[in-house]
Amino acid sequence: MAENRPFLDRCRDKPVGEQDKLAAEGKEFTVKFKVPENESITFDDRIKGTVTFNSSNIGGDFIIVRSDGGPVYNYIVIIDDTLMKVTHVIRGEDHLSNTPKQILIGRALGMNVPDYAHLPLILGQDKKKLSKRHGITSVDLYRQEGYLPEALMNYLGLLGWSTESGDEILSVDELVQQFDLAAVGKSAAVFDFVKLKWINANYLRRYSDSDATDMFIPYIKNAGFDISSIERRKLEEIVAAVRNSCEILSDITKLIGIFLNDVNEPDDETDHHLKEDYALDVIRAAHEIIGTLDESNVRQDLANMIKEKTQHKGKKLFHPMRGMLTGRLAGPDLDIAIPLIGYANIKQRIEYCFKRYC
RNA sequence: GUCCCCGUCGUCUAGGGGUCCAGGACUACGGGUUUUCAUCUCGUCAACAGGGGUUCGAAUCCCCUCGGGGAUGCCA
User: What ipTM does this complex have?
Assistant: First the structure.
């Protein structure tokens, strides 16, 4: 365990001349602030209320100029704040303990200290201050994942604060209009990706199919899909079919393959499902029937003919069909998906499943 | 260690002495809609950290304990 007491400083009371001499000799040095003893430092924080420190226990003299000559930001910011005529300092609670040091510097310089508001911290799932090890912490990474700016701002605004009405989906304008520093809570909040995604999905659904398509395209390309040969109109239909299953833009990369690949390997869950007896019935029936159908009637007849042949309906009909045709158990409405996949691919996928499972 | 801040459902929160056997949202679970999934919709589960006070009355005020977080001689 390191020393808990303020470092014993031999130079604290050396006359100025002697310090200069040592410096001139080339000795490394830092400049420290001489903290007065037993002085009360109180300020009214806009969020935390009255906060009081005693100068004797803020850690002793602290360095304000590093040995390389650079100022220590943490403590001397108040000079910059004052020079810039900053009236309100709104920052994270992790700066609360630095505040008395800053105020001390301000006082020593005869400056007017600004008003402070210390926001509660945002925590990770482990309740520790949010940092890189909690995953995405830069706005750029949120963008890359496909979180919408308005959703992120909305979510962040709701951390430590809420509207009087209880409304939770708020545009930036509404946020600006309704936000009130006085209504901000004092306790830290855990960052919840699940709720962020829910909010994001809310905003995502507000866009038209056309706008949504524009937004999804970069994510689709980025995932390695070549969509250059697909007409815009069809692309929009594809997006319309899967957008409800997306919470963030990048989610589409898990679904788009349904339409763009020749065959989709069933994922584990689907694979397991397709081995059920009733699923095998469906695959066999589809295999028998598909040759008699074509592009014009596959959509309306495939399901009905399988139904007739197997006598399966509802969940036992559509679940296996979905698995067989898309490789997944969740996804777009089959009525919409089938024409978009196209007869040729449908046939191909049925044959693939027949070989694999029957 | 020391100082400072904080403590209502799993999570975000409302509530600031009676209207609170605590309200909303997310999640989870169940119902409805969808011949399937998602969407949508309805509903259910779930909390005042503990103990002392003050008071006719406390989630709300005070104290203690416990718990969590932050800061702490050269990161911003």
Answer: 0.92
